[in-house]
Each structure stands twice: as structure tokens, then as C-alpha cells.
DNA sequence: CGTCTATTTGAATGTACTCAAAAGCGGTGG
DNA sequence: CCACCGCTTTTGAGTACATTCAAATAGACG
């Protein structure tokens, strides 16, 4: 049950919860093991769960009309990952969510989360804050994508997500930054240690 | 009071409201006239109002560290405009909101909106949907910024926001697309009618 | 060890920027 | 009403940034 500790800590950092709340939260979340490359959410499916990463590394990505992959988000331990729009509006997902490493997520179903909100109202605030943060992070990324060179974006990524950089293959970082793997390779050469 | 009709229609398209609701909504929103170039929200200020554009054209923009302007959003009649993050979190705004033309906005103060939610609960759903749509629009824009050429982005903008393209100066469209005005000019030459 | 995938390298090309200057346009004052 | 001023848009030359394609090299894993 150690994985649940991480979840509880993650929530407790943001909102106040007591022992009763904690046991209600534990019951609402179900563990799900994922193999490397296993897909948690497909385009076209409707997202029914919020998921917390207890162990491993995942990504959400999108295929554009030329079938190029674009990564929207990476996630490691203590992050939340989803196609938020599909979840919120109950419309077909436009993104995939996939495990990069063997992973363990703690999932709460939409209905179950609604009940949780009734029993632990502060959880509603918790998720509202998560969504707000996701929004502002996205806004910053949009601006950076438009105003910075690939090199600047890469260095920014490196400092911001030091750990992720070491855990995911380079071509995925390129797909996150919106550049080709070849060009990322030449950028990296400049900063070779 | 014609400007209020537009607001009511905008809300009524999304949620069911009766005559009583309408008069409550009318009272909550106050008109504010803006001159061309007048700034409605400054970086550093905390956003206290949601605003609906009844007449005119506005933009929200951001200055990056090289003091370049990047436009996040244009808005014309029937659109909502704000620094949403500042409004939601009550933290200092990172963006400016400015009138491009002489404009009229209908503003509702945060406190007033909270009261409105109690009297007309469906309004809470209305704004939640607005925020969700803003999120997904931003996500699409991020992907496009990374995966499309300037020309593709411009053509996309043109079909998506035909009217805005005709109302705002070209250098602002460049600032929206993340390219230089010179380069936008050469792109346009190719499609000269 | 062999196979498959990921990364690197390099040449040629395309996309977008910088800088400078000219042309166009819109409002204001005389 | 027109002339002028300031701002916006266009044009062009030179350069920087990033891609494509092809091939070589390196790593990971059964």
C-alpha cells in the first residue's frame, strides 16, 4: 500500500485532510499495473478515470494529420495524467495516454470521484486547482513554442524536467519540443559533457 | 440596453434561463466603455472581473523577456476576454488586456458572480464550459504552433477567424502567429487576390 | 551474437529572421 | 481640403535556424 502514501501526500500538500478522509480516498482509488508501451487511453475512447502515477513514466500524445507524434505531457511519480478535455466533457479523446516504462497508476472513476466530492468536499478544490495549473502551464508552453528557438526550448526543458530527460528516449523529447530527433542530436552535441 | 441582448443570447445558447434569471443577470453585469488602445488589465494587477465584449475588439497579450509582444487571444462581439489564471487564482496577471477598437464590455465582479451562481446555478455550468473550451482551444493551438509552418498557421487563422483578420492590423496577426510582420507580408503576397 | 531500434553525422534544401529602405495609408492641423 | 507626419506594410539581400534524406554508428535485449 506504499503507493497510496504518495497519493495521500500529494493531496495533503494542497488541502487539509483527516484520517477519515484518507481512508475514503484510499477506497476510491484502484491500482492498475501497466506494461511498457501499454496504452491507457486511445483516441476515440471516452476518458472515464482520473489517474495518479504511483510508479513509472507515461506520456500523452497526439497524432497530427501527417501521422507525426506530438507529445503534450510526460508524467512520472506523483503526477496526474489524462485527456482532460475528454474526461471533463465526456467526448471522444483526441490524445493517447501510454506507459513509457512499466508503471502503476491509481485510478478513480468519474462516478466514484463525484461521490468522493460529496464525502470530502475539499477534494473538489484540489482538482480545480490541478486543472487551473494545467491551464497556465499550457499557456506558458504555447508562448514558448512560438517565441523561443529549439535550443532555448531544450535548455528550458532540461532544467525544468531534469529527471524526465534522463528517463525517456531522446526522440520523445524531440516530439515534445516539436523538432526532429536529428536536430535535437545536433543541439545536444553543443552541450556535451 | 441592446448590448445586453447579445449577452443574454450568448448565455441562452448554452443553458436554459427564464425571465427572472435574465433580469438577475442583467443587474450583475455593468457596462464599461473603452477607448481605442485603452488597457483593461495590466500585468501585475489582479483580475477582478469577467468580461463580455458587447461591441468592439480586444486582445490579450504578453511581453516576453525580449519585450516582444505575443498575442494570446483576440476577442470581438460575443466573446469573453480575461487573464483567466489571474482571475481564478487571484494572483497578479501576466497578461495585458487591451482594446484594439473603441469598445464596450459588460463586466461582472467576482463577488457579484459568486452571488449570481447562488441565484442562477446554471451560470456556474456556463462558466465551467467556457473554461473547458478555453483549455482545449489552447491545447490545439500549442500543437499547431509546434507542428505547422507559419503559412499553414496563417491559412488556418484566416478561415477560423475571418472577421478578426479584417479588423486587426497585420502586425498583430503576426504577433498572434508567432512570426515577424515582414514574413507575414511575404506569405500574404502568395495569396494576393 | 545478431537483430532491431535509437542516435549521430553530413550535405543539400527550405523556412523564417534581421536589417535597411521604400512605399502606402490614415489622421490631424493649418 | 490638402500637406505632412507617423505608423504600417512591402520589398529585397544576406544570414541563421531547422528539416529532409541517406548512411554510419551505437545501444539494448533476447
Topology:
The structure is a homodimer of 193-residue chains.
Chain A: H1 2-12, H2 19-28, E1 30-34, E2 39-41, E3 49-55, E4 57-63, E5 69-76, E6 80-81, H3 84-89, E7 96-99, E8 103-109, H4 110-119, H5 122-147, H6 150-160, H7 162-167, H8 170-177, H9 181-190
Antiparallel strand pairs in A: 1-8, 2-7, 3-6, 3-8, 4-5, 4-7
Helix pairs in contact in A: 2-4, 8-9
The first copy, chain A, binds a DNA duplex (30 and 30 nucleotides) through residues 149-151, 169-171, 179-186, 188-189.
Explain what this protein looks like in three dimensions.
2 copies of one chain form a homodimer. With 193 residues, the first copy, chain A, is an alpha+beta fold. Chain A folds into 2 domains: 2-147, Jelly Rolls (Sandwich), CATH 2.60.120.10; 148-193. Chain A has 9 helices and 8 strands. In chain A, helix 2 (19-28) packs antiparallel against helix 4 (110-119) and helix 8 (170-177) packs across helix 9. The termini of chain A are far apart. The A-B interface holds A 62, 64, 68, 70, 72, 84-85, 88-89, 131-132, 134-136, 138-139, 141-143, 145-147, 177-178 and B 62, 64, 68, 70, 72, 84-85, 88-89, 131-132, 134-136, 138-139, 141-143, 145-147, 177-178. The structure holds a DNA duplex (30 and 30 nucleotides).
Amino acid at each position: 500500500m506504499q503507493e497510496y502514501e504518495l497519493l495521500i501526500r500529494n493531496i495533503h500538500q494542497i488541502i487539509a485532510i483527516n484520517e477519515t478522509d484518507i481512508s475514503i480516498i484510499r477506497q476510491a482509488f484502484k491500482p492498475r499495473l501497466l506494461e511498457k508501451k501499454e496504452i491507457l487511453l486511445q483516441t476515440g475512447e471516452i476518458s472515464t478515470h482520473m489517474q495518479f502515477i504511483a510508479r513509472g513514466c507515461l506520456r500523452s500524445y497526439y497524432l497530427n494529420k501527417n501521422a507525426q507524434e506530438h507529445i503534450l505531457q510526460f508524467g512520472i511519480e506523483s503526477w496526474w495524467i489524462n485527456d482532460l478535455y475528454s474526461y471533463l466533457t465526456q467526448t471522444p479523446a483526441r490524445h493517447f495516454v501510454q506507459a513509457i516504462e512499466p508503471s502503476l497508476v491509481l485510478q478513480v472513476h468519474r462516478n466514484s470521484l463525484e461521490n468522493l466530492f460529496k464525502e470530502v468536499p475539499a477534494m473538489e478544490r484540489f482538482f480545480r486547482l490541478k486543472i487551473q495549473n494545467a491551464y497556465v502551464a499550457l499557456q506558458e508552453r504555447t508562448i514558448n513554442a512560438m517565441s523561443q528557438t529549439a535550443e532555448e526550448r531544450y535548455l528550458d526543458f532540461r532544467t525544468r524536467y531534469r529527471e524526465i530527460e534522463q528517463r525517456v528516449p531522446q526522440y520523445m523529447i524531440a516530439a515534445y519540443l516539436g523538432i526532429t530527433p536529428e536536430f535535437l542530436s545536433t543541439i545536444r552535441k553543443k552541450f556535451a559533457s
